Amino acid sequence: MSNASASALDPQAQAMLGRLNLKPGHAAVVGLQWGDEGKGKVVDLLTAGFDVVARYNGGANAGHTVCVGDQTYALHLIPSGILYPDKLNVLGNGVVVDPEQVVKEINALRGQGLKLDDNFLISDRAHVVMPYHKLQDTLQEAAVVKGKGGDANAIGTTGRGIGPCYADKALRSTAIRVADLMDDAHLRDLLTAVLAVKNATLAGLAAYAERDFTPIDLDATLAWLKPLAAVLRPHVTDSARLLHREIAAGKRILFEGANATLLDIDHGTYPFVTSSNCSSLGVHTGTGVAGHHVPNVIGIVKAYQTRVGGGPMPTELHDATGERIREVGREYGTTTGRPRRCGWLDLVALKYTATVSGATGLAIMLLDVLAGLDELKVCTAYRLDGKVSDEFPADARDLERVEPVYEVLSGFAADVTEHNDYASLPAEAHGYLKFIEDFIGVPVVMVSVGPKRSQSIFR
Ligand code: GDP
Ligand code: IMO
Ligand code: MG
Description:
It contains 14 helices and 20 strands. It is an alpha/beta fold. A hairpin with a 2-residue loop joins strand 3 and strand 4. The radius of gyration is 22 Å and the shape is globular. The structure holds guanosine-5'-diphosphate, 6-O-phosphoryl inosine monophosphate (IMO) and magnesium ion.
């Protein structure tokens, strides 16, 4: 089974792929803001030039959208290379796998005519997101809001159980990995021990958060898991070994980041982050492929700034311009449907994330959304306690207090959605892109002017 129309790369994009100027070796696609930059679209486009697409982090908190022809593919866990039936798609050990979500996605994508069999593999070392992780996610947020006395303190998680699953990974004794699902007797023993601890923990959390709680039943959980594990079984493998075999055979790997560098657990706007290393630094721990193999990092950047959930966002707009960007850019979350907070492009944050993730090229996405704005502001410094600096603060409390310093650039009036070469873009759009490139010191290798494959300009 295959979907020929979905797998045929737009010939224009195919020709332009060579213009990316990639070094020999593998490449990573990484978000450089707070997520939803258009990573899915770029991974889909670039997959044509690679043999394997490997996700290295995150779980079903991600929502990657790929639009081809009249079809829209909403991907949460399955890599965005899945539209090409002849490419391998891998969930690395750093991903947290929600079995129910994977099965749902497999079925939905098959329903859309895509091949999903031996082209999709899951690491046996990946951790499993269980229903109690989702419950814990919600209870934890409710408890913390109560404890700290208000919504302003909430991370605003996606409720997909991400934090609790990674926490169990770190705790070890309450963790379940994909390999554990493959052995019924072992799983029963493991889950018996895990549920005893979980039920005690969750009962306490629920009591404090003033929520109802029914203890999780072992047999019901096992009965729920059994058919899901049966669907996953043929896809489970030692993914690190597999990737190294592919590397040795001269195959090219594209690493797909979920979430984004400002949400990185170590380098993001902590504690308003997710629970994995979503920067390019996570590629290596999340797949078992060492740094020297990956000399190319394509940093994905929305032409403006968005954020879903809590936490500081210095350039957030609470006015008609912010509203306009949200409506034109359809800035509503793929995973939760929440309206995204919108604002001007933050170059202080971008310079920081491009450095942390080691971006070797930038893809500027959704440029079309800015058409028609008279002026375009970009934040080039922060003012904090009277001091102006272009350094990104480590403490979210400082980031909350900074006042953005803007450079005002000319806007462009023309609709750019039909443009397909760099030279034909309006002079003001060139000015905007050049300003970004010069400020960050990393070349813009691609510009996106719409969700479709054909709406992509490679320089
Ligand atoms: P991801 O999480 O980084 O993969 O991004 P999402 O898929 O969550 O959000 C990006 C949204 O923008 C999706 O709905 C895409 O279809 C859409 N998109 C991608 N590139 C462009 C573009 O250049 N212009 C417009 N208007 N939409 C785009
Ligand atoms: P993609 O891959 C946007 C945000 C959530 C929340 C915080 C923590 O589509 O770009 P979590 O559920 O991970 O514990 O939530 O991180 N967040 C994202 N925001 N895009 C994403 O992924 C995100 N993944 C997590 O909104 O603020
Ligand atoms: Mg998204």
